[in-house]
Structure formats: C-alpha cells, structure tokens
UniProtKB/TrEMBL annotation:
A Pfam family reported for this protein in Swiss-Prot or TrEMBL: HPPK
UniProt key word Ribonucleoprotein: no
Keyword annotations from UniProtKB, A to Z: ATP-binding, Folate biosynthesis, Kinase, Nucleotide-binding, Transferase
Family: Belongs to the HPPK family.
Pathway the protein acts in: Cofactor biosynthesis; tetrahydrofolate biosynthesis; 2-amino-4-hydroxy-6-hydroxymethyl-7,8-dihydropteridine diphosphate from 7,8-dihydroneopterin triphosphate: step 4/4
Designated name of the protein: 2-amino-4-hydroxy-6-hydroxymethyldihydropteridine pyrophosphokinase
Residue ranges occupied by any 7,8-dihydro-6-hydroxymethylpterin-pyrophosphokinase domain in the UniProt entry: 5-134
Root EC class: transferase
InterPro entries, alphabetized: Hppk (IPR000550), Hppk_sf (IPR035907)
GO biological process, one term: tetrahydrofolate biosynthetic process
GO molecular function, one term: ATP binding
Amino acid sequence: MAHVYLGLGTNLGDKAANLHRAVCGISEKIGKVLSLSSFYETAPWGFTSENSFLNAAVCVETSLSPWEVLHRTQEIERMLGRTQKSERNVYHDRIIDIDLLLYDKEIIQTPELTLPHPLMLQREFVMKPLLEIAREIEHPGIGKTFGELYEEMCGKIC
C-alpha cells in the first residue's frame, strides 16, 4: 500500500462542501483517508479573481498506481463539476482542484505526471495544509522534511 498526498482547492460555490465532497470521492475511488488538514482560506495564485480559495491536504492509503490515482482524481473533479483544467500556467476559478503532490517516495517525470508536484514548494497554500499532516515526511530527492522546507520557504515568501 502506498501513501499518497493530495492538495485540494476550490473557490466557487459552497467551498467547504466542495472539499468535503472531494474527500468523500477520494475515499470511494482512491483509498482510505488517513488524515485531512484543516481548511485554509487563501488568495488566488497565478491569476486575479474576486473569489478566495479554500485549500486542504489529505493523505490516502492506496493500492493504485500513481497514474491510476491521477486519473481517478481527474474523474472526481469532473464528477464534482469541473469542466476545464488549467493549461500552460493559465489559471481560472474552479469548483474543485485535486493535485497529486506525493506518492510515497516516488520521483516521476513524464509528460502526463511529475512527482513530487513541481510547484508545491512555491505555493504556501499547498505547503501550509501539507505541513499540518506531513511535517516529518521527507521530500523525495531533497532529503529535508516538509517542516524544514516550510521554514526555508517562509524566509522567502511567507
């Protein structure tokens, strides 16, 4: 069984309900939810919007491969009403976003999937909830815990 960390975000509709529905979908389609962070209200990142985000992180135990997890998160997004994915760093409002952040200690770089998530260390809205549930987990390839990385990050952008 693998431990998978997912980042969740929403800035449309009933945000808390959107996150709860996403967690239920994750539990049904991906595996056992081991931990869920608090929900954090954050400003949009990478685009301008009047709608703030609600973000969280979740740890799931799964027997699925990283690609199966990716496809099932996309299926959950569609099921919850997301019709458009961000492409080429063009971001927009969304009812739900589920990002695959980590899959055990796997390092993967393919056109379809990059793990660990390549932008996670630049995004406080990802790191803060992740820190709550994975402070002592080491970032694959860097060899520092997320607690250590967050402290370094806060010297730069927090």
